[in-house]
Amino acid sequence: MKRTITTLVLAGALSSAAVLGTAYSGLVNVGADDPHFAAVHAFLAMARDRSIAVRARDIDVPDLQDETLIRTGAGNYNAMCIGCHLAPGVEKTELSQALYPSPPNLATGGIGDDPAAAFWTIKHGIKATGMPAWGKSMGDEYIWGIVAFLDQLPKLDTQQYNALVASSSGHQHGGGESAMHNHEGQHGNHAPERAGHPAPGGSEAHHPAPTNTASKTHMHRDGKEHVHKN
Length: 230
Prior knowledge:
- By secondary structure, the protein is mainly alpha-helical.
- It has a single domain, classed as Cytochrome c-like domain (Cytochrome Bc1 Complex, Chain D, domain 2), CATH 1.10.760.
- It is built from nine helices and two strands.
- Strands 1-2 form a two-stranded antiparallel ribbon.
- Helix 2 packs across helix 7.
- It is elongated and about 70 Å long.
- The chain starts with a helix and ends with a strand.
């Protein structure tokens, strides 16, 4: 028995040394354009899903059918999430195509069957995926607004999506909002500005640009111009 334990310990030590040596040698390609091996991807997905499930199991879910909650979430989603997770009528963007792992298309997938897990993910983010921890700047009630909106999102067409965003107050979550980068040409038809409600989806809608500004324009591969305001 003692010999077996010693053999297992030595085997474990050698395996650990081999893994560390491989990593230190630089043989592991960390480029986002080089996907994980299937076994590695499956392991990481399992670890992610179990981590979220354990931490979200005691979260109390509010009424996700509350219309005010849904409208609040619509404005924040359109301003903060659409570049990665898309929306009805929105094609893949630079971010959604470049990130690895690829962010899910929430316009079709929604939040699945676990709103508590969706809340935890939005609040705390996920390491090394590009998913931010929005809880650092958003109160829980605004995060629940996004969850409530996501519960409705797969049921919406482009017109319904734009109408719901237009009925919201745009990008607002109680203070600390930053100017969001505007990819107007890639994000489909944004809802127009209404009286008393800034047009969501772009920084210009919420933070007027200074009068003396320079702009830089570059052309996307789809032929659409993209203007950066300095």
